[in-house]
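Entry for acetyl coenzyme *A complex. Fields follow.
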Amino acid sequence: MTDRKATLTFKDKQHNSYSASFPIYSGTLGYDVIDVSSLGKEGIYTIDAGFHATAACKSSITYIDGGKGTLLYRGYPIDQLVEKADFTDIGYLLLHGELPNKTQKSDFLGLILDHMNLHEQMSCFFSGFRRDAHPMAIMVGVVGAMSAFYHDSLDIKNPDHRNLCAIRLIAKMPTIAAMSHKYSIGEPFMHPRHDMGYAENFLHMMFGTPYDESAPDPVLVRAMDRIFTLHADHEQNASTTTVRAAGSTGANPFACISAGIGALWGPAHGGANEACLRMLMEIGDEKNIPEFIARAKDKNDPFRLMGFGHRVYKNYDPRATVMRRTCHEVLDAVGRHDDPLIKLAMSLEKIALEDDYFIEKKLYPNVDFYSGITLNAMGIPTSMFTVIFALARTTGWISQWTEMVQDPNAHLVRPRQLYIGKDKRDVPPAEEW
Ligand code: ACO
């Protein structure tokens, strides 16, 4: 309940004045919200096409302060979590609300490892794809197809079913992701191993072969784990909003996560790290940087500097700070500090950070700028970058979906519109069309 109200006064088309009051609510942190849900009764809607000033739900999972550059998972700052916790802890934290104790952690990881393998019949899905299919296309298809496979957990009103779906999704994403890569290069699929952790298993399934099962480099395992942690959740972004919108219809979680993967694919969202790497290759040489900076500033040129800017962060993205550090650790471990692409990226970062246009518009490098370079240095193919993002974000998506399904006040997502098409008219005889 609240005793604070916002009053809106407006004129209709006949210039009659109306006013209506709306309750104002406060969360734990962040901006207050005005509840305009009753506004439609007054014969008027609000419009906010990109949700720039619209809270779409209540949530207690993740908090971002874009001005200060803060990111909290269940209240814990991201920079502390990457130092003190691993991705298994993060999965448990996002899903259950608290960090796991030792027993809870080993039970959670044990459950995930038990579910990591794919049923042999599910492996057959892959052979339906062309070898040159983008692995994101395979992910959308195979994750969506899980609903055709796991009929035993599709009752979204049953908490045990919901939990089993969450575990299956978190557990099988690394396997599906690695299989989509192995399929594209024609190598045999690798099985997950019970003696390896989550990130380690992913790298093992990506790079291991039946004739070389040596354990992945611990520095790379740690880097992968951090990449997963940094990408695990990010409040109500485009893909999470897609998952929630799909979920609001009562669709099963496999279908909802598949929709989220589709939304993540775009270059303005999860596809940015792939787009960033491609941009670096297009720039090609440090001497060409000024030309591309000039293009990014030119209003008549659609080109944007990929890996720079963020809808919410108008300060340094806290994930980018951690990712930058991780990037250098990986470059040291693989001995690639002198790689021309890496040198080019570092020069671009420096020049953009000192340029007035980028300073004035608060366009800082985002997490995707460094994650692309790091993944490249780790030997991950560019087409797999967004897949890795999707793998990590699945934990956040399924936690957000679970929260929404349990929320008694959640509604079917059904926005209205400002119609600007033709007025009602009769269909003329066909010869006049
Ligand atoms: N390069 C050049 N100019 C830019 C860039 C950029 N990367 N990003 C924003 N701008 C400019 C815009 O042209 C605009 O200029 P104007 O005010 O003169 O019209 C101004 O900055 C604001 O841009 P918007 O698009 O309104 O800002 P918004 O907050 O909606 O955009 C977005 C955020 C989409 C991420 C944008 O910065 C962008 O396209 N960046 C490149 C893609 C990218 O790196 N995406 C990854 C996001 S992080 C993630 O998904 C994990």
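NOTE: The pocket of acetyl coenzyme *A is lined by residues 268-270, 272, 296, 304-311, 361, 363, 366-368 (CB under 6 Å).
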